[in-house]
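Running co-folding for 5'-deoxyadenosine.
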Amino acid sequence: MEQETLIQTEAPVRERRLYIESYGCAMNFSDSEIVASILQEQGFSATSEETEADVILLNTCAIRDNAEQRIRERLKHLRGNKKKNGDLIIGVLGCMAERLKEKLLDEEKLVDVVAGPDAYRELPQLIAEVEDGKRSINVLLSLEETYADIAPTRLNSNGVSAFISIMRGCDNMCSFCVVPFTRGRERSRAPESIVDEAVQLRNQGFREITLLGQNVDSYLWFGGGPKKEYKQLTPEEQASSVDFADLLEMTARAVPDMRIRYSTSHPKDITEKVVRVMAAYPNVCNYIHLPAQSGNSRVLDLMNRNYTREWYMDKVRMIRDILPDCGISCDIITGFCSETEEEHQDTLSLMEWSRFDFSYMYKYSERPGTLAARKYPDDIPEDVKLRRLQEIIALQNRISNEKNQEYIGREVVVLVEGRSKRSEHDWMGKNDQHLVTIFPKEHYKPGDLVRVKIHKASTTTLIGTALGYAQF
Ligand code: 5AD
Ligand code: SF4
């Protein structure tokens, strides 16, 4: 036995190269770093050159039809790579893999591996099966997997900011959304492993972390296992449980010299306790992504969002009362099933009232298998969806521009991330409220926290001049 082991370790191991491309949300980009780490353990090294790769993995998104169309186009393009290199292995990971399962292998002949978001530990085995001449698939979802023990390999990193996944899956069942089907049930990751990862990142020189979850406000740790609500916990579990506000506070204390952000909040669950932690710790950024989706209570009910327009407005009021300077951004869907013109106007008026700093805006895309696809006809004509979308984009642009102009003459604190895209003489970073800010480089460098006086602003960018180093 020992002899065999010796022979195996001495056999030359050919280093194989891995190219991963990520689509969709931050969670997917974070998952790719877990995948890279798992495969690195097996002798793979990450490359940024797809032509050098032995394995190409696309970590896919399924949130809207156009996200999937993009992947189909990319797969078509990869046929050329496969022609040039017959041994090339192509894998599809993530949400589209989970949604389509075996169908993906039937429809896309060049795909060798299909792996869902909870199956990444199996990737080395799946790839080995392909090397044995099979095509392989694992799309099992888990109630427990959080990859808590895996130290992600940071990919395409600026060395300044990094993501930390604090939970996986989603239990909300918004009627338009495919995520509960592609990412499975919600489960939280042990707080110690999250804090450890933050400390490790700090020790590696990172200056900012973003705690990621589909719905961070329902984070709850009580010792592990499938999700339970707080009221279902035993008194002992309740006493030792950690909610999102507790986790945010633990992290803020553990790395007081790092900036901390988080995403995404759900209006039905966001608590005053979380906002109070934000106010108490200067290293937690004043910024909340709070998707409203619609400004009309009937549409919100059809969307199964579990809050009304008034409830949403109360949450914005609560945030602004505690943190007057807090940046708030939003997600909006236009043209959801049966949305009337008046209901669309309600969305515009909510945006006007809330004065979001920026928004991510989409037209409704029906996703097979979702509650809405089963219950409500997708009955808003494409041209109407598009016109409504253009109206909300125009309004948001106006508001963003007005709000950004208010920064002129003010001092903001910017964490330098890297070179400005437009000029090699300028740095780019974000202020506390997550707004992109540009200023001349002088002697500053990436990772510096800099006080910047703003003298110009556009819809998307603040422009200023450095005044000196900043402290939290
Ligand atoms: N169609 C359009 N937009 C969607 N989103 C989620 N599902 C859909 C869909 N079927 C949007 C929501 C969500 C964001 C991540 O994507 O606004 O908050
Ligand atoms: Fe992320 Fe949702 Fe897209 Fe999956 S479907 S990658 S969870 S945005």
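Result summary
Residues 382-405 form the longest helix (24 residues).
The domain at 411-469 is CATH 2.40.50.140 (OB fold (Dihydrolipoamide Acetyltransferase, E2P)).
Job closed.
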